[in-house]
Design goal:
The chain has one domain: Bira Bifunctional Protein, Domain 2 (BirA Bifunctional Protein, domain 2, 2-Layer Sandwich). It contains five helices and twelve strands. Helix 2 links the parallel strand 3 and strand 4. The protein has 234 residues and is an alpha/beta fold. The protein is globular, with a radius of gyration of 18 Å. Helix 3 crosses helix 5.
């Protein structure tokens, strides 16, 4: 069983955590490259895996192949509303991060798990789907669209509760998921979330009609992350 170093970073600026992820990914890749240079008499260095939890101040992030036309407000309006914006190196389109949204960044060496990005994305979705089930909410998938949805197969009622976007370098992952817990959903009105038109965004709070304890959500997500990825968070 792989061990994963867990950190809850609290409320942190997006760029600071992005840079931190890049450092962790670089360290993991360097370990892999050093191991490839060892001869048979040398023991390999152990892989390092991380899971970061964080909440960000309001920020929009656009994936590397995203369409800037999906940002519906100007730079001046972003400044006036104190919302940051970054064009970043993950997959996916535009999304929002803000307080009371649980953002998870797994930095995993998939050579120690399964070198299959489809499996990895579905596994993250399963973590969130299982967490939602503990609250009595049926989460699911939308055909051809990454993330976790509610009523994805009912036209006009489809609503996304968790966005997922990743980067993978030499089978080491970064970026991750954004799970709307008590998130202020009005921020999504300034973008076309994930570049998907005519579909809603929701949160645990909106679905259940009450404020949700973030500590409880984090505990459940950690539990299902361990269960589904067969790891130990330390």
């Amino acid at each position: 069983m792989q061990q994963v170093l867990f950190q809850d970073l609290g409320l942190k600026a997006y760029k600071e955590v992005w840079d931190y992820q890049e450092c962790l990914l670089k360290d993991s890749v360097e370990i892999k490259m050093k191991n490839r240079e060892l001869d048979e008499s040398q023991l390999p260095l152990p892989s390092k895996h991380h899971l970061l939890f964080v909440e960000h101040p309001p920020v929009y992030t656009l994936g590397k192949s995203g369409n800037e036309e999906n940002i519906l407000i100007s730079e001046q309006e972003l400044f006036q509303k104190s919302i940051e914006y970054f064009h970043i190196n993950r997959g996916g389109d535009i999304t929002f991060h803000g307080p009371e949204q649980l953002v998870g960044y797994p930095i995993l060496d998939l050579d120690c798990f399964k070198t299959d990005l489809g499996w990895y994305l579905r596994s993250i979705e399963d973590v969130i789907i299982n967490t939602m089930a503990d609250y009595g909410i049926v989460g699911g998938r939308s055909a051809g669209e990454t993330g976790v949805w509610i009523d994805a197969d009912i036209k006009g009622r489809e609503r996304k509760i968790c966005a997922i976007g990743i980067k993978c370098s030499r089978w080491v992952t970064m970026h991750g998921f954004a799970f709307n817990v008590n998130t202020d959903l009005s921020y999504f009105g300034n973008i076309v979330p994930c570049g998907i038109v005519n579909k809603q965004v929701t949160s645990l709070q909106k679905e259940l009609g009450r404020t949700i304890d973030m500590k409880d959500v984090k505990k459940k997500v950690k539990h299902y992350f361990e269960e589904i990825f067969q790891v130990k968070l330390v």
